[in-house]
Write a structure and sequence with these properties.
Heat Shock Protein 90; five-stranded mixed sheet; 12 strands; 17% strand; ATP binding; HisK_dim/P_sf; Sig_transdc_His_kin-like_C
Length: 462
Amino acid sequence: MFRTLSGRFLILTVAFVMLAEVLIFVPSIARFRLDYLTDRMERAQIASLALLGANDMIDDAVEAELLENAGVLNVVLRRDALRQLVLSSDLPGPVTRTVDLRDPPVSALIRDAVLRFARPGPEVIRVIAEPAQGGGVQIEAAIETSDLHRAMIDYGMNILWLSLVISVITSVFLFLAVRRLMVVPIKSLVAQMIRYAAAPEDANRIIEPRSSVRELREAETTLRDLETQLSQSLRQKERLAQLGAAVAKISHDLRNILTTATLLADRMEMVDDPTVRRVAPKIVASLTRAVNLTEGTLAFGRAEEAPPALQMVPLARVLDEVCESEQLSIDVASVEIRHDVPPAMTVRLDPEQMHRILGNLIRNARQAIQATGRPGEVRITAEEDADTWTVRVSDTGPGLPARAQENLFQAFQGNVRKGGTGLGLAIASELVRGHGGTLALERSGEGGTVFRIDLPKAAGDV
């Protein structure tokens, strides 16, 4: 129970109510003590006036009875300049303290009341007060405190029991109110979340805000929006998964067909017909691009890429292969693909995966240049510092559209040319992350586009 919200609220309620009762009890017990002493002084005044009215013509028994009824041991009355011992009896002990009831400060009343509780033993005190109804200048009385202490204890117990009853009743009502207004709606909200989690694709399980409490209604509204977005995302992912499975099957079969067609096209180059010799390389290049596209689609459709087999490799050797293969697929005069990387520069990488990364970047760059119908250049440079190898792929193309830059590395959304799938940059970015590095668009504009690859030198960053 104490681990529940309502149980803890119940405990806090009882604790705070009792604290409030304590803050009320201390002043009230001080007030009770003041009223008790004031009552005794008024009785003492009446007894003394009765004695004075009889012209001291009463015996000792009547005097003792007056003192007993007044609850005091003696009475000293000061009228004008005279100070007169009106009533007296034997004191059970010496007077230990003097209590002045003439306009006492609140702090003194509270302190004396606490001390009375702290020292329960009997003692004789001298009390000074102003006589009621102008019955003199000052009245003093000696009072034995045993009765006062018992009266304060009885009063305190009454306050304690009353406080407990008030605390219990208040706590029960607050417990029921909190449970009804907060705990039950929260449990209902949790139950709805569990129900939705069992079948998040079911739109009928999305919560409908109904609470009249503003904060809970805001929570229900936020949860409804979140569940709506999640359901839509799950439906979209399910459709994409189904589409991906279909595309993977088609790409697999298409790749086999294209591979066969490529082998047949290679044989066409051995034909003596000049037209066939001129057309055959272009057919082979087109088939090669189609094979690369299907392989890229299949690679992206896998759950995850294989981890890179990192090794220290001369970067220029990888770039030579990539540039040569890409240069063969185009007219040499239209786009020049080259790199300025020194042969001695070695980088920790997976040669096969880096070939795919750079191939995708170079292919996008030269296709962008070819789309303009003007000659251009794709250039690869590299540099290093104490922590990082940096490779840049730049081109002299027209730059990327603003819309393409927003979803540049997202599959099927970051396509930068008409008819593209947007897979190339998504695959490249994923492979670079597998190396522990980053792929970013450094700049793009009318002067061309620059992509930047940063690879960490520290092996622990991979």
